[in-house]
Amino acid sequence: MALSRTTRVNILIGNGHFLSHFYVLCLPPMFLAWQKAFDVSFAELGLTIALMSGTTAILQTPVGFLVDRHGARAFLIGGTLLMSLSLAAMGLTTAFWQVLVLATLSGVGNSVIHPADYAILSGSVDKDRMGRSFALHTFSGNLGFSAGPPVAALLMAAIGWRGTLLTVGLLGLPVVLSILFQSRILVDQAKPHVHHAGGLTGRDLLTSRAMVLFFLFFTFGAMAGGGVQSWLVTVLHTTKGLDLEIAATALTCYMAGSTCGTLVGGWFADTFKKHVLPFITCLTIASAALILCVNWIGMPVVAICVLTGLSGLALGASRTPRDVMVKDAAPPGEIGKVFGFVSSGLPLGSAVTPVPFGMLIDHGHPEMVLVLVAAILLLSLFCGGSARVSARTADPLPRPAEQVAAE
User: Fold this and answer.
1) Residues 137 and 212 placed together within one structural domain of the fold
2) How far is CA 79 from CA 12, 16, 72, 144, in A?
3) pTM (2 d.p.)
4) Is 386 within the bounds of a domain?
C-alpha cells in the first residue's frame, strides 16, 4: 500500500533528524581509542563534542535567516551531506587537530537541521496533523541519541574506530539521496502575503519579548533535562544508596518515558489545539513534583523507577505542544529563523548545568540537584506562559486567518 504524502515527509525529515542526533553521541565511545591513538587528554577529547554542539548552537539562527530567504530544501540536503562526510572523514584522520576541524564542520551541517526541518514540516504537513509530525520529529531525534553510543560501541568491537566512523558516516549518504530524490514532496513554509507597515526586521522579531522568552523556555527546559541526564545516577547512588546498575535503570526509565511522551504530546496538540498552554503547565508541574518525590520520599526501587519514568513521560509530552506553540507564534515566512533562534537554547541549556551541579555534589549536597531541577522546570514554565501571552498581545506581524481562528 502506498504511503501518504505526509507520512513520506515525516520519514524523510525524521531520518535526517535521527542522523543529526546519532552523530553527536556516536563520538564519546571513540574517546578511549582516540586517547591511545593521538595521546590527548580527556579535556581535549571533550572539545570534539563542545565544538560540534557549540557550532550548531551559534549558527542555527543565521542559518534560519537563510532558510527563510532562500528555501529550506537545498540547505537540508547540503547540511545532511556535510554531517555525513565529516563523520566519515574522521575515520581517515592522522592527527587530533583534524578530528576537531571535522567535528566543527559536522556542527556546521547540523546547524541546518532544526531551521530547515520545521520550515518544511510547516509547509508540507496538513494543519490537523502538525502536532503529530512535530512529535515524530522529536521522537526520531531522541532515538538517534539513544542509538548512537551502543551502535558505535558494537561496531568498534568488530571493525575498530576508523572502520566505525567510515561506516556510520557513509550510511548517511542513502539518507541524503532519499531527501534529494524525493525533494519535490518537501514544500517550504508559506511566505507572507503582506508586509508589516512598520518595517519590522528579522532582528526585531527575534529580540521581541515573546521570542526572548521562548528562547529562555527552551534553555531552562534543557538545563533541567541536562541536570537529570548527567547526575541522576550519581544522586540516587549517593542519597538513596542504590547500586549503580539500578540507578542507571532509573535514568533509562526517565529517558524512555521522555521519548514516548513526545508522541502523547503530539496527539494532544492536534486534538486539543486551544488547550496547549494548560496542558504544558500541568505536565511540567507534574514532572517537577514527581522528581521531588523521588528526591525526598523513601520508597522501594521499583517505585523510584516508575516515578522517574512518569516524570520523563510528563516532560516529554510537554515538548511537542511547546514546539507547536512556537510555530503558532512565528509569523508566516519566519519559521526558520524563529526555530533556529529558540532551539539554540537546547544545546546551550544542556551545557550549562552539568558543571555547577557536579560542584554541588563535590561539596556534599547531592540532594539539592533534583530540587534545583524542579525549580528550573517551574522557571521554564513561567517563561513559556509569559511568551505565549506576549505573542498573543503584541502580535507584531500579521498571521494567517486559519491560525487566528484556531486560537
Assistant:
1) no
2) 14, 10, 10, 17
3) 0.84
4) yes
Structural domain for 33, as ranges: 5-185
Contact partners, residue 286, CB within 8 Å, separation at least 6: 310, 311, 314
164 and 99 within one domain: yes
Claim to verify: residue 49 and residue 155 sit in the same structural domain: yes
Shared-domain flag, residues 223 and 355: yes
Q: Give the CATH number of the domain where residue 385 resides.
A: 1.20.1250.20
Specify the amino acid at residue 207: T
Residues in the chain, total? 407
Q: Is 402 inside a domain boundary?
A: no
In angstroms, the Cα distances linking 180 to 12, 13, 75, 166, 170 are 10, 12, 11, 22, 16
How confident is the prediction for the chain on average, in pLDDT? 88
Q: Is residue 66 part of a domain?
A: yes
Is 19 inside a domain boundary?
yes
**For the segment 35-60, what is each residue's pLDDT rounded down to a tens digit?**
899 998 887 888 888 888 888 889 99
103 with 208, same domain: the answer is no
Separation of first and last alpha carbons in the chain:
36
Residue 4: all three cell numbers together: 501518504
pLDDT in tens, 308-325: 999 999 999 999 999 999
The domain total for the chain is: 2
Reply yes or no on whether the pLDDT at 337 is more than 80.
Answer: yes
Confidence of residue 300 (pLDDT cuts 50, 70, 90): very high
Give the residue-averaged pLDDT of 136-143: 91
Measure Cα distances from 288 to 237, 242, 371 in Å: 20, 21, 9
Closest CA to 165 of 145, 183, 180, 151: 151
Could you tell me which residues come within 8 angstroms of residue 212 by beta carbon, excluding any fewer than 6 positions away?
A: 206
Looking at the structure, tell me whether residues 172 and 208 fall in a common domain: no
Give pairs for 39-43: CB < 8 Å, separation 24+.
40/96
- Cell numbers 511566505 correspond to 191
Residue 189 has pLDDT above 80, yes or no: no
CA dist., res. 296 & res. 290, Å (int): 10
